[in-house]
Structure formats: structure tokens, C-alpha cells
Amino acid sequence: MAAPRPRSTRSTSLRDSDKLEGTACWDALEWTKIEPVTSSVSHANLDLLLDAERIVVEGYGVVLVNTDEAGTLIVTNFRILFLSEGTRNIIALGTIPLAAIEKLNKMAVKIQSTPRQTDKNPSRRLLQVIGKDMRIVVFGFRPKTKQRRAVYDALVKCATPARIWDIYAFSSGPSKCVNTNPKVRLLNEYFRLLGKSSSSATMDMIEEGSFTLSNELWRISDINSTYTMCQSYPFALIVPECIIDQELLQASSFRARYRLPVISWCHSGTGAVLARSSQPLVGLMMNMRSNADEKLVASLCTQLAGGKMSRRKLYIADARPRKNALANGAMGGGSESSSNYFQSEIVFFGIDNIHAMRESFARLRDYLDTHGTTSSDGMSSFLRHGGWTWGGGNLSSMSASVSTLGDSGWLIHVQSILAGSAWIAAQIALE
Questions:
Q1: Could you tell me which of 260, 269, 413, 255 has the C-alpha nearest to residue 334?
Q2: Which of 39, 106, 233, 323 is the most buried (most CB within 10 A)?
Q3: Residue 340 known to bind ligand
């Protein structure tokens, strides 16, 4: 068998298929069919595994297009591993936790060739892995080996485990929690917030419904223990001690998806609370009201510390832009009115919805992929010219790059979120 030719040091661009013609990295690889795990897994690869990690499938002679590097692609029940063909070292860029995978795309690139080489140069099979951590990684496979199909199927299956216990955090070793049941952990946190740390939650307590502890201000309600009131809220809720369960039911009907105002956190020093809810159903004319909802919200405002008899101010923080809140009124939603809630102030943070956030994040990820050091198309951008940052760009190209980054809107979104969070923390701590 002829020795493989030296690998090319050129970058391979998927955006320009002409540049793929004759690239040595494709011809130098030994493309083999993937075999069942029992016969294909080498003992050397087993040494790389974590606790409870097992190899599901392996692909040989795979190219990491981002760096134009050949190696072995391994899919385990926890992650993707990419090993360099020469050193057998793990390549960090091509190693991705399965929980960090957002999307998988199968693509093909046709390599242009001379008429006599048409049959010898079929299209290359590509698998694009889009990560939640900003990575866009592309792996290249030889056609007719069925390796890409095997890897893709394994990723689809393993990236969405049927049980939470199959995730690495839970299956890698002994749990650090005395009881890993989420309901028990939630109740223990509630007990801490209510100053009842001496009490400890148990499954028997949950099954018997005997977890409804309280202090002078707040209580734990079991009204949602079967999730019949609100499917997206936990089974136990912290609510004002003076509000009975019947009033909670009435208040929930005035909130979108029955997400009534409930307490998320209590400040042990000031007595202030952080509560959450969905938008009120005030209607198109913004004139619908609920006595139960207004009473519940008013009960969240405790008296100021230091012996003062006046009640603390109620801040209602609406994360949306004001125009979005008004537009939701046409669909029955809307926002609270300060005239209906005693001593309250409505503050709009102007944060865009999740769809705008997702689109902005995708644009930022594309920008980083285009101008980063390891673009998923294998092409070096002007930012990497000669190994010097900005070395290949002129003033015009630099300005265009910065403008593209600004157009993503991501920094504006982050600023709005951080500013709103800081404002809420300040009101709770200082007033």
C-alpha cells in the first residue's frame, strides 16, 4: 500500500469549492467503514473515557474542517471526542459535551475535478455541529462509508437521553446530595428561606402533604401539589401567610397560564421579597381587574424594617418593552396599572422576547465563526492573516467587521438584562 502523501498546510474553504480540488488532506486519509463497537473500539481510546462513559460509535479518517485536521471521531454517551490522527491527542475544538449541542446539519460539498477524474472525486459528506457555546464545528466524511449516518444517528439518540439520570452530572459518580429527589431539595430551600432550617424535608413528608410550614409572614402552600392549578409551577409554592388557597385559585385565573404571583426569594435582613408571575389578563381596554390578585400582590409588601409602620413600596418590574405589553392587550394580556395596586411603580426594562434573543445569539455565533481563529468553513479570515490579529485587514474591512458585530444586537441585549437585574437587586437590598 502506498504511503500517504504529506498533508497540506492550506486551509480548506467550504464557501469556495474550487479550493477543495486536489487538497491533500482528503486523499491522505484511510477512509474505512465504521464497525460495531465491540470490534472497533481500541484499548487506547478506552483510557480517555470518564466515569460511566462508554463509546457508542467511532469514525475513522474524519476531517475536522475547522482546522483541516484528520483524526478519529468518537461518540460516547456523554460527548463527542476528536483525536488527532498523528498524536492521538484530544482536539479541544472537536470535543463537545452532548448537552451543549443545539443543532445537527448534514451537508455535502461537490469537489470540482477534470473530466477524467469525475468518478474519482464524489461529493464530501459533512456533518455540522452547532453548539450552545458559540461553536460551529464541521466534520468531513468520505462518501459511501456510512460513517456519517452512524455518527449522526448516535448523536441524535444520545443527545436526548430518556432519563435525567443518564446525564453525566448524575451518572458519573456518587451523588453529593443526601437525597437527589428534586422535590425534597426544593422544600429544603423553602425551609431555609422561611427560617426553618432545623426542619428537613423527606419523601414521606411530601407523600403525606405535611410540608406546609409557615412563619409570621409567609407559608408553603400545597395547592399545586398535583399541578392542576399551574402545570409550569412547582408542586409547592411560597405565598403570603394571610392569603388562603381559595384566593390563590381566584388570583391564578387572572394571570396568563395561571402563573399567579409567588415568592422566589426572601431577604432575611430587610424582609423584602422577590416574586414572579406572568402578565395579568387586563384585556384590550386595560380595564379588567381581580380583587384576589390585587390582594395577593399587596400582601407581598411587608412593613419597612426599623420600627417604621409604613409599608415598603411595591415595584412591578416588567421585562418587556412598554409597546410589547400594550400590544399583548389585544390578545387579552397586558400589564399592571399602578392605580390598581397600592403604592406601586411599574418599571419596563425593554428586554426583547426570546425569539429576538435567539436570532441575535445566532448572528453573534455566525460572526465569531467567520472572524474567529477556527472558522467552520476552513478558510482563514483577514483576522488571521499571517498569524497576526487584524494583520490582513485594512481600515475599511475592520470597520465593516465591527459594524457586523454591532448589528447582531447581542451586547445591547446583555446590557438590558444586566441593568435590569442590578436594578432589582438594589431595590431588594437597599429599600
A1: 255
A2: 233
A3: no
